[in-house]
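Q: Could you fold this chain for me?
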Amino acid sequence: MTVPEIEATAVPDDAYLLDVREQDEWLAGHAPDAVHIPMTQIQGRVEEIPADRPVYVVCRVGGRSLQVAAWLNQLGREAVNVGGGMQSWQAAHRPMVSETGQEPFVA
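A: Sure. Below is the predicted structure, expressed as structure tokens.
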């Protein structure tokens, strides 16, 4: 199955952005409106993910998000992988926040 992929610069501002990184990565820096569900919790929390709109999936560099997007697509969802992950997001100067009070960064 081929998974659609989009560059970080092309993710719509109002997109449902699903961040599947681990907690420490999320705390260090993430997109302001992203929803955090670690990859290891996706199967148990899939009902939290909307089925009526595209879901843009992001991780650190794109590998985990590709797997999650493929799985969501197999379930009949519309999922798109964010190519290059949060590293590309940061390189594109897209907005980021941290939960630590420090300057956000990609961990």
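A (continued): The chain has a mean pLDDT of 97.
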